[in-house]
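To illustrate this point, what follows is a protein record of this kind.

___
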Amino acid sequence: MANTKSAEKRMRQSERRRMMNRQARSQMRTEIKKFRSLVEEKKFDQARSMLPGVYGIIDRTVKKGVIHQNTAARYKSRLTLHLNQSAS
């Protein structure tokens, strides 16, 4: 347990940031799952129209510092590849 006031404040901040990061990551993963389910159901037109929105959510997650930029690039690349391979 924290002994000083500054340590107590730091714990509060860390907990608040952890919850915000968790929420952002969860939202990103949910959108990715929705996109993948559209591709699996062979609804390619809907998936193509959804892709920019998924990209935006991934980019916002990077901007918040929740995931690394290279991780986001890998996600986006694999999603696009998954769509293109399934559509062809």
In short: The chain has one domain: 5-87. The domain at 5-87 is CATH 1.20.58.110 (Methane Monooxygenase Hydroxylase; Chain G, domain 1). The chain has a mean pLDDT of 95.
